[in-house]
């Protein structure tokens, strides 16, 4: 039997990149997935791909920072699939600048996306989890649930030009460790994955220093200057960037029954890099 047969997984930012790879991985192991993306098209593509492979998925389109999103997201899992077993707070992006040039909006936006949104989603999930856990305990069953928060080595080690992103990702570690203590009685494992150099659109080489994406109405420059990016593989002991599938695999480890006695941990996924 597949390791996640019958489980219900909620994954933010799962229309692209690491989130997409994770949605496909969990679905391949039997999980029913609530897919989220800012845009309808990528979310629909992931749902369709899962369906064609024989799995089940639904899309919850929208920004994780929207008022009411957390309740809508959790509610969709309960209404469509009747459960809630895995939550992965993956959605995010970068908006870089050195501190003397960073605006209040720039700093607060990264906190909202990477810290406040996960907090709201977990708060919205608290009551359904409590009710489900109480019922299972009364029936004499021990059912483990999983929360995986996605951090970054920018949060564990810092990174120049990312005071906002690094601060949010570091705070997410604190949220992880606190929830692991609060929710242990409900049999919820709460862990954190901190990524290093993973090959996504956020780490692509800038083209003429002006690679841009539009996110929530803002045109933002993402990626890494070409010369810097060319140096990064030399800093990684395995000699290359990680793939989205490899990044998703690390999250998967925290979602399977073999990790039922692991909680409150931060797993560095950086190909051996130790800055």
Shape: globular
Label the structural class: alpha/beta
| The CATH C-level class name | Alpha Beta
The name CATH uses for the topology is Rossmann fold
CATH homologous superfamily grouping: NAD(P)-binding Rossmann-like Domain
Number of domains: 1
Measured as a percent range, the helix fraction is 40-55%
Low-confidence stretches: none
Order of helices and strands: EHEHEHEHEHHEEEHHE
Major sheet, described briefly?
7 strands, parallel
DSSP strand (E) fraction? Answer: 15-25%
Could you tell me the radius of gyration in angstroms? 18 Å
What spatial order of strands do you see in the largest sheet?
Answer: 3-2-1-4-5-6-9
Number of strands: 9
Q: What's the total helix number?
A: 8
Give the end-to-end Cα distance, rounded to a whole number of Å.
40 Å
Mean pLDDT over the residues: 93
* Secondary-structure arrangement, i.e. CATH architecture: 3-Layer(aba) Sandwich
Present the secondary structure layout.
Elements: E1 8-11, H1 17-28, E2 32-35, H2 40-52, E3 57-59, H3 69-81, E4 86-89, H4 104-138, E5 145-152, H5 153-157, H6 163-182, E6 188-195, E7 212-215, E8 218-221, H7 226-235, H8 244-255, E9 266-269
Parallel strand pairs: 1-2, 1-4, 2-3, 4-5, 5-6, 6-9
Antiparallel strand pairs: 7-8
Helix pairs in contact: 1-8, 3-4, 4-6
């Amino acid at each position: 039997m597949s390791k996640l047969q019958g489980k219900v997984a909620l994954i933010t930012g799962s229309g692209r990149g690491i989130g997409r790879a994770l949605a496909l991985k969990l679905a391949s192991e039997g999980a029913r997935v609530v897919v989220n993306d800012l845009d309808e098209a990528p979310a629909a593509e992931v749902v369709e791909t899962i369906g064609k492979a024989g799995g089940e998925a639904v899309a919850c389109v929208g920004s994780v920072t929207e008022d009411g999103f957390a309740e809508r997201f959790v509610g969709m899992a309960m209404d469509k699939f009747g459960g809630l077993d895995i939550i992965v707070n993956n959605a995010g992006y970068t908006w870089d600048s050195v501190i003397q040039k960073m605006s209040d909006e720039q700093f607060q936006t990264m906190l909202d996306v990477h810290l406040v949104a996960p907090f709201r989603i977990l708060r919205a999930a608290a009551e359904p989890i409590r009710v489900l856990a109480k019922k299972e305990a009364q029936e004499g069953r021990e059912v483990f649930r999983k929360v995986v928060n996605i951090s970054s080595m920018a949060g564990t080690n810092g990174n120049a030009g990312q005071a906002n992103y690094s601060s949010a990702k570091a705070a997410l570690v604190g949220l992880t460790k606190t929830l692991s203590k609060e929710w242990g009685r409900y049999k919820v494992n709460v862990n954190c994955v901190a990524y290093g150099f993973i090959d996504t659109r956020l780490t692509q080489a800038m083209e003429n220093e002006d690679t841009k994406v539009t996110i929530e109405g803002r045109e933002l420059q993402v990626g890494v200057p070409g010369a810097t990016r060319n140096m990064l593989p030399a800093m990684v002991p395995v000699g290359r960037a990680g793939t989205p599938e490899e990044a998703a695999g690390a999250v998967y480890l925290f979602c399977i029954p073999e990790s039922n006695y692991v909680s409150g941990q931060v797993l560095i996924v950086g190909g051996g890099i130790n800055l």
